[in-house]
Write a structure and sequence with these properties.
Blueprint lengths: L4 H21 L3 H25 L4 H29 L6 E2 L2 E2 L10 H15 L7 E2 L3 H21 L3 H17 L3 E2 L9 H21 L4 H15 L4
Antiparallel strand pairs: 1-2, 3-4
Helix pairs in contact: 1-2, 1-3, 2-3, 2-5, 3-4, 3-5, 4-6, 5-6, 5-8, 7-8
Length: about 230
């Protein structure tokens, strides 16, 4: 019985992503983002539970990746898709080509690159204690927080949608880039061994206090910058 517990938790992650996607299509961004955060919590505990119960399995590993594609790939991409559809300033046509019918679909590049990133992670033996490329949960948290925190400004700005598309391209690349990024796995509690993680957490706490939930996008930006500054190239 206990061997099924981690997989059940992983399925809760998957279900959270499905619910988030539905609400994202409806433009209920806050609820969608909360569901993504819930999925991230389940994603943390499924692996932890599997190790604690000593029931890790290849099926659990594959199921985890499939769930992550939905929760951290499709759900945030759908938020961006719905967000772009709200932008009024590209509701025009060029040579009878309706941009509004095409531009939002570029958001789903995030799904494709998230899937590619997860596939690479599963076969890359270098990513045992750290990451190479932006982890999919971090990508999802960035987009969810950005939509929540910058929704009105981007929709109202004439070129807000251009910025969103540029960020889609940047973060699609970051997901698969050969850029080492630190993890928050603690082997002990000493400052010397974990100074990068502690620095990240302290600054992140300040950002969240000042900016609120939308500040998670700034936290992920800080994570990327700190990784680039402190990690050796792969």
């Amino acid at each position: 019985m206990r061997r099924h517990i981690p997989n059940a938790i992983t399925c809760c992650n998957l279900l959270s992503g499905c619910v988030a996607t539905v609400y994202a299509f409806e433009g209920a961004y806050t609820i969608a983002f909360v569901c993504i955060i819930m999925g991230a919590v389940f994603d943390f505990f499924d692996g932890l539970t599997a190790r604690a119960l000593k029931v890790s399995s290849p099926i659990g590993k594959e199921l985890d990746s499939l769930a992550d594609v939905i929760t951290f790939g499709l759900a945030p991409a759908t938020m961006v898709f719905s967000w772009l559809r709200e932008c009024a300033y590209f509701q025009f046509s060029i040579l009878n080509f309706q941009l509004a019918d095409v531009v939002p679909f570029f958001a789903f590049l995030l799904v494709a690159f998230s899937a590619l990133r997860l596939a690479k992670f599963n076969v890359d033996e270098r990513q045992t204690s750290s990451f190479i490329g932006l982890p999919t949960p971090a990508n999802a948290l960035f987009w969810g927080a950005l939509v929540i925190g910058s929704h009105d400004e981007v929709v109202a700005h004439p070129y807000g949608w251009v910025l969103v598309l540029a960020l889609v391209g940047l973060f699609s690349w970051l997901l698969v880039a050969e850029i080492p990024m630190f993890s928050l796995k603690f082997k002990n509690l000493s400052w010397k061994s974990n100074r990068i993680a502690y620095t990240f957490l302290l600054i992140s706490l300040v950002l969240l206090v000042v900016l609120g939930l939308g500040g998670l996008s700034a936290v992920i930006g800080w994570y990327i910058i700190l990784s680039v500054l402190t990690q050796k190239r792969a």
